[in-house]
Specification:
240 residues; disordered C terminus; three-stranded antiparallel β-sheet; 10 helices; mainly alpha; disordered N terminus
């Protein structure tokens, strides 16, 4: 699909609520469009088009793009405009490596705090993820995956650790979306094993399993990136 075709097919979003400063609301909305794939890596971001789609003037869009540029979501090219950032292999590797360290520790700590009620919440998220896999629901897989990992982080009881994970969470979701189908059932089988170990209170094994789980995701991401380089125009997947 051409770039213009992609823009033309997007529906107008409902007008944004404005309890927060408008520039922040617009920044969050465009970031969400990038994370969910509505805006693709390398796509040209035209202020007037984004403003019309979000139902705002061009000024908050311009301010949002500047903010997103400073946060690494958008590239500003002199004379050309703004473009969605395309993550490099090195950026992805560094972020996913940091995620492995943080989440392995969170799982280790969570095992000591795993009450039946908290574990039951994990099983509910597990069920949602498995249902998304069965339905080939990419957005559902990504959302359930993020929620399950966030729940384990909350169970760790370490506020600083949670804050650090929060910094990388949105990028992890961005990187995970293209491989959600590739990981599919395997990822949720791994989640199931992690939950069982958390419920048993085995801290060391929980940390080890989480480390292996996140490393597999990291490996899958790099494999997909390499395949994309070899075949830059793959056929569109059914349901994509």
């Amino acid at each position: 699909m051409s770039e213009m075709g992609g823009r033309g097919s997007r529906s107008r979003r409902k007008p944004l609520e404005r309890p927060a400063p408008l520039r922040q609301v617009v920044t969050d909305e465009i970031a969400d469009m990038i994370i969910t794939g509505e805006l693709s890596p390398g796509e040209h971001l035209v202020e007037q088009e984004l403003a019309a789609q979000l139902g705002v003037s061009r000024q908050p869009v311009r301010e949002a793009l500047q903010r997103l540029h400073s946060e690494g979501w958008v590239d500003l090219r002199p004379g050309l405009g703004a473009f969605v950032h395309t993550p490099t292999a090195e950026e992805a590797d560094q972020l996913l490596a940091a995620r492995t360290l943080l989440e392995a520790e969170s799982a280790r700590l969570a095992a000591a705090n795993a009450t039946p009620a908290l574990v039951e919440q994990l099983w509910e998220l597990q069920a949602a993820g498995e249902a998304a896999v069965e339905a080939d629901d990419e957005a559902g897989m990504v959302a359930a995956n993020a929620a399950l990992h966030a729940q384990i982080m909350t169970m760790s009881g370490n506020t600083v650790l949670s804050e650090l994970v929060g910094i990388v969470d949105s990028r992890v979701r961005w990187y995970y979306r293209p491989i959600a189908r590739s990981r599919g059932r395997e990822a949720w089988d791994e989640h199931r094993e992690i939950i069982e170990v958390l419920a048993a209170g085995n801290a060391r094994k929980a940390g080890d399993l989480m480390r292996k789980h996140t490393e597999r995701t990291r490996k899958t991401y790099h494999q997909r990136a390499q395949e994309a380089e070899k075949n830059p125009n793959p056929p569109v997947e059914k349901g994509a």
